[in-house]
Amino acid sequence: MASITIRNLDDDIKQRLRVRAAQHGRSMEEEARDILRRVMGDASSPRDLAAAIRARMSAGARADLDLPAREPMREPPKLGRQPR
Questions:
Q1: pTM here?
Q2: What are the tens digits of pLDDT across the range 33-77?
Q3: Integer distance in angstroms from the first to the last C-alpha of the chain?
Q4: 4: closest CA among 31, 27, 32, 25?
Q5: In the chain, helix, strand, coil percent, each to 5?
Q6: With CB atoms 3.0 to 4.6 Å apart as the test, which of 21, 25, 43, 50 could cross-link to 31 if both were Cys?
Q7: How many CB atoms lie within 10 A of CB 31?
Q8: Half-sphere exposure of 11 (CA within 13 A, CB side)
Q9: Which of 31, 34, 30, 33 lies closest to 20 in space, CA to CA?
Q10: Would you say the C-alpha torsion 32, 35, 38, 43 has a positive or negative sign?
């Protein structure tokens, strides 16, 4: 089994972990392992970013937008020296 060290952990996070571990009747280390197991075991992250975005968007969350009609392009400005 591997082990890790977490440096620069906010005091608030550590305190919340300590309280949560006490509520569950286990050590902080075991509580952290349980949290990591649940979080990492739940999601098999898609490799495709577009697929991940589509998976998060429900059909009801999508919006059909009315796009304005396209107009012809303007004449580009004439740059450079103009003859006098």
A1: 0.49
A2: 999 988 887 666 557 888 778 777 766 666 778 888 999 999 998
A3: 83
A4: 32
A5: 50, 0, 50
A6: 21
A7: 19
A8: 0
A9: 31
A10: negative
